[in-house]
Design brief:
alpha+beta; seven-stranded antiparallel sheet; globular; five-stranded mixed sheet; 3 domains
Length: 447
């Protein structure tokens, strides 16, 4: 049972200790303990590796959850922010949409859900291989298997999403269908479904406020990325009522075990936000300063690639190609959580690789990206220009991404040659002409 302590601001809720587990090559292992305490103003969390896990790692059968921020040690780690230091643990938690669905299930407001409660409700279905329990366990522990919605239930799930958007109540059947989906990240409505072969897919749904089909344009952008040579997950469009459709993207953090199509392997995942770990008290108004650019930039992601990737050269090339594509398709929502790393299954040393591209959606609005593309500083020392979506900016950022000038020009040319054929991909996605016109207007807004 949660306890409370008084503070100068408001009572702080001390949540029960969470026991952290991880799947490594098909076996679940006890990793350590996570403790959280929060009030409406403050959040504090600590994590400590278990001696048994440290011994397992010393024998070469385990690894640091985050090699940069959580190297293996006996002393505890502490943080006052979800994405600072302990971010890899909270990568498994949902964002706005999942919290909304969890809150509906419990009949409370989403802001009243504590972090510990959110992590426990996920039941190991969040991104990556980390899971949480209320009791300690030993290696080989089997997580309970919870039913996942089926692929053929996508239309029904969409109807449930529409009910939530319209502020309507959900019956028990509807809430049960969403239980396997509520710990997936992101702010937009989505659900996790399973196909007949056991593979899991994330179904992304339209919203009533959309001015064009984000699902169709994301599918088109993913196909362009694939043709460029960028890693992308399998994707398909499912037609819904009227002109609506759902975009299904296959989960790259889950693998189906041969001969056991109901047994999914979990792959360890770390977001770029967690690895870069901006200070918990970072002021967003400092984004366009040298300090802000040192955290929120493609150059900083490139630095992580150089430090951790088992195939750094190819991952750096791909990261740069993604930056070029994001600029061309006007995907300005390229924040740090929209890039991630997966454990390299072929690496004996438990190295990481750049995870496949996801959430590459053309955005409405101005041409400033969430991340700095190039140096940006000019005569007036305005770093905001570093986020301006222009190819000149991209080219100026090549050196900081460890890409030589000639190679950068070749990558830009390769991406441009595919992007110039974008109408082919829009038509393959069955985009209506009014949607194409809207997307083209966005693309023309880049700097």
């Amino acid at each position: 049972m949660a306890k409370t302590t008084s503070s100068a601001n408001s009572p702080k809720v001390l949540e029960p200790t969470l026991f952290v587990g991880i799947e490594i090559r098909g076996v679940n292992h006890f990793v350590g303990e996570l403790r959280c305490a929060q009030s409406t103003q403050d959040f504090v969390a600590s994590f400590q590796y278990a001696p048994s896990y440290l011994s397992l790692a010393q024998s070469g059968h385990a690894f640091a959850l985050d090699p940069i921020n959580l190297p293996l040690r006996t002393d505890p780690y502490k943080t006052t922010g979800r994405h600072s230091i302990l971010g890899v643990l909270f990568d498994a938690a949902p964002d706005a949409w999942g919290r909304t669905v969890m809150a509906l299930d419990e009949g409370v407001s989403s802001v009243s859900l504590t972090e510990a409660r959110v992590l426990l409700k996920g039941k190991g279905a969040g991104v990556g291989a980390i899971f949480f329990t209320t009791q300690p366990f030993e290696s080989g522990f089997a997580l309970p298997v919870y039913p996942t919605s089926r692929l053929d239930q996508v239309p029904e799930l969409y109807e449930i999403v529409r009910r939530i958007e319209n502020g309507l109540t959900l019956d028990m059947h509807s809430r049960a269908l969403l239980k396997s989906s509520w710990d997936i990240g992101g702010a937009r409505p989505k659900a996790v479904v399973q196909d007949v072969d056991g593979a899991q897919w994330i179904a992304k749904f339209p919203r009533g406020i959309d001015t064009f089909s984000r699902q169709r344009v994301e599918w088109a952008n993913l196909q362009m990325a694939k043709e460029i040579g960028v890693q992308v997950p399998a994707a398909q469009l499912i037609e819904l009522d009227g002109d609506d459709c759902a975009l299904l993207v296959r989960r790259f953090d889950r693998t189906v075990q041969p001969g056991h199509n109901q047994v999914l392997g979990r792959q360890h995942y770390i977001s770029a936000a967690s690895l870069i770990s901006p200070p918990a008290d970072f002021d967003k108004y400092k984004m366009d300063t040298a300090f802000g650019a040192s955290y929120f930039s493609y150059a900083r992601i490139a630095d992580v690639v150089r430090r951790l990737s088992t195939h750094a050269a190819s991952d750096l090339t791909e990261l740069y190609a993604r930056m070029v594509l994001n600029v061309l398709v006007h995907n300005t929502d390229d924040h740090l959580k929209n890039t991630g790393f997966l454990l390299d299954a072929s690496s004996q040393s438990y190295g990481l690789r750049l995870a496949p591209l996801f959430d590459v959606v053309t955005q409405e609005g101005g041409s400033l990206h969430m991340l700095h593309l190039g140096p940006g500083a000019n005569k007036t020392r305005s770093y905001q220009s570093g986020r301006l979506g222009s190819l000149d900016n991209v080219l100026s950022g090549a050196k900081s991404c460890a890409i030589k000038s000639a190679a950068a020009s070749a990558i830009i040319e390769r991406v441009q040659s595919v992007f110039e054929r974008r109408l082919e991909f829009y038509q393959q996605a069955k985009m209506q002409q009014q949607d194409i016109d809207s997307v083209e207007a966005c693309v023309m807004q880049r700097g």
